[in-house]
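Kindly draft a polypeptide, keeping tokens residue-aligned:

***
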Amino acid sequence: MIKVNFYEERTRTILFYSIVFLLTSIFFIPEKNLHLKLFILFIAISFPLMVAKGLCRWKAIFESRIFLTSTLFLAFSLLSLFWSTPTRSSDILNPIKNIFYLLSFWFIFLFAFNDIDRRIQILVKWLIIVGSITAISYATYQYFYLNHSLATRFTIPGPMLDKVRTGICLGAGALICMASLLFEPNNRRPRSSVLLLIAFAIFLVTMLLTHTRLAIAATLFFSFIMITLSPLEKRNKLLLAVFGIISLFAASFFLAPLLDAYINRGPSLRLTIWSGFLNEYNQYWFGHGLGTEIQISEGKLAGFHSYHSIYLGALLSSGIIGLGLLLLMISITLFTGWKLRANPYALIATILFAYSCTTGLVNFDTVISRPRGYWLPFWLPIIVLSVYELKSSERKVST
């Protein structure tokens, strides 16, 4: 028994630090395919080993309503491949692989994060450190060494993929920094608070440089939500809110070139895009299938194939049923997270997930993707909340 426990603990530790590396390296590995290969290698070694050694919590995980509803959505999305009309074999294979990677990672995470509070603290710390250092390094290189103007949209190369995903991840980083400042115990050293404020400023400024408008608005909105739900006294909450508003106006003054860039970009074409795709939508209940690439056939956007909404993507690929399952998954996750709000880490994960759901309103095609960019702020809070849900159920049973 001692040998088994020793083996399990060593395995947990190795898997935990491997997960920390994989999640933080989304920021700093400059080549997206290299990160994907490392992720696949990690899954290919870890998951079969856990299955062989009986370390997967097969029965326990199905007690999580978050996992159950997520599995229902993912299973129906897979089922829709049977009535899809793919143009390439990858249109079928990629969704299957992406769902396998996600569910395998979920089981590994559940095993590795047994001491969830302590290990979440470590993961959050390294995400803040690596994310902020990477962001300031690339910003310095692009705007000082390459002498880009502030109107040039900032991006972090590699698994972030593009400016929008970069902006959303940097906004999530800013929210994590704020949460660490507001919810962590009062015995934090002053030096740590200063470093967190610096990291928060880095995430916030570099996010503004991406010109990702909804990420900026959502970050500001959920920052105020976080202040409202924090354990601070009402007077301090009010002072923070006023300070935030004054800082926002001050930033607007000093970053006037960015505001000009936002105005010059003009109104978004989202409504035109969505209208064009809805004109192509005719498989109402079951959708056109996850492996089908739908294109707008008429108008100035003819040939366009990016849905620009995870919700529209679910509707087109898996119909009303698929969209309903996605909304059920999101609702159950948010409801469960709110029930667990007494735990600050669960509350922070809930706010981050709500932030990701908001930014997905006008971005991306699907939540079933490779572990890059948007995958991190969307799926990681879901997985974290499922672990807290199971821990809460175990405590209820033991009492």
In short: Residues 116-145 form the longest helix (30 residues).
